[in-house]
Amino acid sequence: MTEEKKWDVVIVGGGPSGYTAALYLSRATLSVLVLSGVKAGGQLMNTTLVENYPGFKEGIMGPDLMMNMEAQAKNFGAEVRYEDVVKVELAGETKKVWVSEKEIQAKVIIISTGATSRMLGLGEEKLMGRGVSTCAVCDAAFFRDKKTVVVGGGDAAMEDALALAKYASEVTIVHRGSEFRASKIMQERVKNNPKIKITWNSEVIRVQGDEKLHSIELKNSRTQELKTMKVDGLFLAIGHFPATELFKGQVDLDEKGFLKTGINGELKVDWMKGYPTQTSVAGVFGAGDVVDFKYKQAVTAAGMGCQAALDAEKYLSGLQGLALQVW
């Protein structure tokens, strides 16, 4: 079944990048549909107080920020549906996406499906925002004078530990190996910080807490020794995976699965010079954590949503101009 209406833009994903793109495009009097998914709002729906998003001097709760963004986009005419896209066809002038059995057509698609932090798989998700976090830059200030643990061994883990050391009374990095993967300079900064301790050859095997986190259990892979640590904060820095499974074979992805666009330096194609956020397929744009493998902040995602919207608007103007020339 095909909808009677063909949308100017369909945005797949409803986090900061998707809602910002919807705001700009609907304000430009284009018809915009946001397919935000059944879990709308992105990763900020799992956070508590957000203090580093501009414009809120007292901070704002993550879910409130997302609901405000959605409401603002709707206010200018964007339509938001809480449905998951199950299939896409992106080639050609008319783009097609499916929710359940229903086909939806658009002139432009913006992919803003985000990325998901890798978890330990120990049930720690239930304590997200209550002692467990995947963003030290976002949450470090809440752990002033607290005991914290960072899990990981790459640059992200080093950055998290250094961010926490500014506030926490104690930071312990737990790494399953005997050496870090992080850059030498980041390792030196960590090892030279008196607040940071390192526990090698160990992994977290249990996360304990009811209303909030109170302890973790570690296992040493060499000695098999078990150790319980009372901690206030557990920060997971074991990587992210972008939500791009749906788009494999349709647009170019990098080796980690992130969308390749001109904005992340992955694509250098002459015909897309005017549209830095465009993917390898004309009329398909990317924004937010599905493209951004480095910064992963709400404000950078929103900025990329703005960029994708402006590129999409310019692209659509080009299509209209071409149609007039043909006529």
In short:
With about 325 residues, the chain is an alpha/beta fold. The protein contains six helices and 19 strands. Strands 1, 2, 5, 6, 7, 8 and 19 form a seven-stranded mixed sheet that branches.
Q: Count all strands and give the number.
A: 19
- Counted by DSSP, the helix tally is 6
Radius of gyration: 22 Å
* Biggest sheet descriptor: 7 strands, mixed
Structural class: alpha/beta
The mean pLDDT is 90
Shape summary? elongated
- Give the CA-CA distance, first to last residue: 30 Å
Helix content: 10-25%
Approximate strand percentage: 25-35%
Order of helices and strands: EHEEEHEEEEEEHEHEHEEEEEEEH
Poorly predicted tracts of residues: 321-327
Notes on the structure:
There is one protein chain. With 327 residues, this protein is α/β, with parallel strands linked by helices. It contains six helices and 19 strands. Strand 15 (213-220) and strand 16 (226-230) form a beta hairpin. Helix 1 runs parallel beside helix 6 (298-326) and helix 4 (155-165) runs parallel beside helix 5. The chain is elongated.
